[in-house]
Amino acid sequence: MVTVAAGRDAKSQAANYPTIIDVCAPCHGTDGKGRDVETPNLAGQSGIYLYNQLMAFRNGTRRHPPMKGIARDLTDNEIKAVVSYYAILPPP
Ligand code: HEC
User: Which residue among 42, 45, 46, 78 is least enclosed by CB atoms within 10 Å?
Assistant: First the structure.
C-alpha cells in the first residue's frame, strides 16, 4: 500500500524530492506536469492509480516501451517514493 501525506504544496515538495525524480523530471517535471502533449500529468493523480500503472509498465501488462524501460529499473521502494511524491502535488 501507498501512504500519502496530505497538505504539502509544490514548493515544499520540490525542496525535498526523492532523487529518483531526476529520472522522471525531463518528461513529467518535478511539478508533475507533462512536458509535451504525449506525456500525462502525474500531479495530484490518485496514488493507487499511479502505483498500478507503474507496476503494469514494469511487468509489461501496460505496453509503452519508454515507460517500460524506466519502470523495469525501479525498485518497489522507488515506486512508492515517486508515487507519494507525485500524488500529493497540486493537480495542474
Ligand atoms: C522519456 C520520457 C519519460 C520519462 C523519463 C518518464 N516517463 Fe512516465 N510516461 C511517459 C509517457 C510518454 C507516458 C504515456 C504512456 C502512454 O501513452 O501509455 C508516461 C506515462 C506514465 C505514467 C502513467 C500515467 C497515466 O496517467 O496513466 C506514470 C505513472 C509514469 N509515466 C510515471 C513515471 C515515473 C515515476 C518516471 C520516473 C521514474 C517516469 N514516468 C519517467 C514518458 C516518460
Answer: 46
